[in-house]
Amino acid sequence: MTSVNQDPTPTEDEITTSPDASAELLANSMGEYLRIVLRRIRSGESGALPVIVGLIVIVIFFQAKNSLFLSAGNLVNLMAQSAFIITLGMAEIFVLLLGDIDLAAGYTAACGAVIALWMLALGDPWWAAVLAALAATAAYGALQGFIIARLGLPSFVVTLAGQLGLSGLLLYLINATGSIGVGGVINLHNAVINDIESGQLSPTATWIVMLVIAALAGLVLFYGDQRRRSAGLVAPPVSVTLLKIAAVFAAAIVIAAVANQNRGRLITLEGMPWGILVVLGVLFLWTVLLGRTRFGRYIYAIGGNAEAARRAGISLLRIRTLAFTLCGLTAGITGIIYASYLGSISTNVNGGQNVLNAVAAAVIGGTSLFGGRGKMLDAVLGGLVVGVIYNGLELLGLSAAAQLMWTALVLLAAVIVDRITRRGPA
Questions:
Q1: Is Nucleotide-binding found in the keyword set (predicted)?
Q2: Which among 89, 278, 362, 392 would be 20 to 30 A from 98, CA to CA?
Q3: What was the pLDDT predicted at 413?
Q4: Which residues does 119 contact at the CB level (< 8 Å), separation at least 6?
Q5: Helices in 262-313 by DSSP H: which ranges?
Q6: Which of 235, 266, 297 is where one domain is finished?
Q7: pLDDT of residue 116
């Protein structure tokens, strides 16, 4: 009789290629870290590598076609164009992590912008208008989440109904403003909101702000890892932590240097747009919320296996409702940024197209449509890809039709590459 080896101990390959184990936590040195990362790439766990490589290839292509693509003026313009796509992508990530979707987020953002611009036109303070808009969009998100979670309805159907209803509400609100919304357009009458996309810091302030942000991010990374080491918990090697901090500083220096280039023709125009700071602030807050709170752990648990999460005592109703609330709140922030970018809001806003771009950004960045996998940084990476495509094709003089088709091809390619690489070798 032959014996069968039933040893449950996992092999080294099984440990280092498991999606549940982090290379940073398994490695004891930089060399081990690199070996584990390479082994995971070969096994299909490539992480954000495909989208980063794809972004580099797209940038090289557009620069070869038009030498102005990597100019300081165009790069800053690109960041401004991508801001609202990135934040709306962040909004979608809250629900995508649950395996849901919010097709109404684009019109939620537009309706929030109408409320804010209406109040500004009536003479209300800018902060009151912003708070009212964010409260309204968060409340609508909560309503959608409650209906979906309480009645067990598909989010696709509920939010599609929401998209249709809000598109009608947008028309109603703008028409109800009377003389404020002449011609179906409400113009932005506030310097503070307008400066989100049109204003910028001084060059000196840009350097100070970016270096302070890099220093704070570095301290958070180092302190968090050091605290784990002191407590005897698994933590990445010190060399990996220092490498991450160096990368953060390098990125901050590059952004500040590009933003401080004079991109004006008739006047001097230097400094980083305020919109970039808004995006970085939202990214920081939501990254901490998902990565370092119980709420974030519950979202990943529900997205991974909703029934197991329910049996573990997690309230699916509460977490789903809160996730849709945060989606609506972030959509409201997007509406303010979008109104600042356009200088107005009108009945011609294509909320459906905006939300599809946002979903595309999240998925291209690496967030799963089936829940349980993704992070806020995905919206930044994917949003930059979408923004680069639109910006590059505009420089080449191609039509909006070409922009949409190329974005669709990149989205499809990202999903295919993600499926192939994560399937791994047969």
A1: no
A2: 278
A3: 73
A4: 128, 129, 132, 133
A5: 274-292, 294-304, 306-311
A6: 266
A7: 95
Domain that holds residue 211: 201-266
252, 127: one domain = no
Domain count, the chain: 2
Long-range contacts of 248-256 (CB under 8 A, 24+ apart): 248/214, 248/217, 248/218, 248/221, 249/211, 249/214, 249/218, 251/214, 252/210, 252/211, 252/213, 252/214, 253/210, 253/211, 253/214, 255/210, 256/206, 256/207, 256/210, 256/211
In a 3-state reduction of DSSP, which class is residue 331? helix
Residue 123 shares a structural domain with residue 258: no
pLDDT in tens, 338-362: 999 999 998 888 877 888 889 888 8
State the CB neighbour count (10 A cutoff) for residue 65: 13
Q: Classify residue 181 by its DSSP letter.
A: G
Give me the residue label for tokens 């220096």. 253
- What the block records as the tokens of 329 is 């709140």
pLDDT < 50: residue spans in the chain: 1-25, 424-426
pLDDT of residue 41: 63
pLDDT at residue number 266: 75
Q: pTM for this one? A: 0.85
Q: Are residues 123 and 256 in the same domain?
A: no
- 149 and 248 both lie in a single domain: no
d(CA 112, CA 121): 14
CATH code for the domain in which residue 122 is found: 1.10.3470
Do 242 and 115 share a structural domain? no
